[in-house]
Specification:
Pfam families: DUF538. This protein is of the alpha+beta class. About 25% of the residues lie in helices and about 40% in strands. Strands 1, 2, 3, 4, 5, 6, 7, 8 and 9 form a nine-stranded antiparallel sheet that branches. A hairpin with a 2-residue loop joins β3 and β4. The structure holds 2-acetamido-2-deoxy-beta-D-glucopyranose (NAG) (2 copies).
Length: about 170
């Protein structure tokens, strides 16, 4: 094979590989690219759209999803949207958390070192990033093997309540 032909072949392979990589980049990869753990999204994402220039995104799940994480009930709609930049998600829509007996929309997620700040507008709570390793499964969440994990409910609620009082 002459070297121009070889070069052309290599170029074609490179382009094909790059295209394949772009096609298979998932919403979970995208989160990690923006400094977030993949576990912010549950299993069952069917696709996403991202306008890289504005950071506007939409993520589609195969249905609604709810589970418990860190003792909180979380609910995901089948479409999640927001504006993402490195380490920050604003105008988030589609994820809500139950605090005591009320549901609040999580409107902002911020990366702060090894923590994630989840804000519901009036209050925010901080969680270690290691709580979000791997994507939770609808129903049993992060604890699918060890469903019976027990923690003090008051203690967890206090995290949200005390941070709102302090603000
Ligand atoms: C969505 O996908 C997840 C992961 O593949 C699966 O566990 C779940 O049952 C699916 N939900 C629906 C409503 O099909
Ligand atoms: C995260 O929350 C903590 C405690 O509420 C606050 O001190 C910190 O500034 C927040 N970090 C970011 C990046 O918003």
């Amino acid at each position: 094979m002459s070297s121009p032909a070889l070069l052309s072949l290599l170029l074609q392979i490179t382009i094909a590989a790059a295209a394949a990589a772009a096609e298979t980049a998932t919403a979970y990869d995208l989160l990690q690219e923006y400094d977030f753990p993949a576990g912010l999204l549950p299993q069952g994402v069917t696709g996403y759209e991202l306008d890289a220039s504005t950071g506007k995104f939409k993520v589609y799940l195969n249905g609604t999803c709810s589970f418990k994480a860190e003792g909180y009930d979380l609910k995901y709609k089948s479409t999640i949207s927001g504006v993402m930049s490195k380490g920050k998600i604003k105008n988030l829509k589609g994820i809500s958390v139950k605090v005591i007996f009320l549901w609040f929309d999580i409107t902002e997620v911020t990366r702060d070192g090894d923590d994630l700040n989840l804000s519901v507008g009036i209050a925010s709570a901080q969680f270690g990033i290691d709580n979000f390793e791997g994507s939770p499964q609808c129903g049993c969440g992060f604890d699918c093997v060890n469903v019976e994990r027990e923690e003090s409910v008051e203690l967890r609620i206090n995290r949200f309540v005390s941070s709102s009082i302090l603000e």
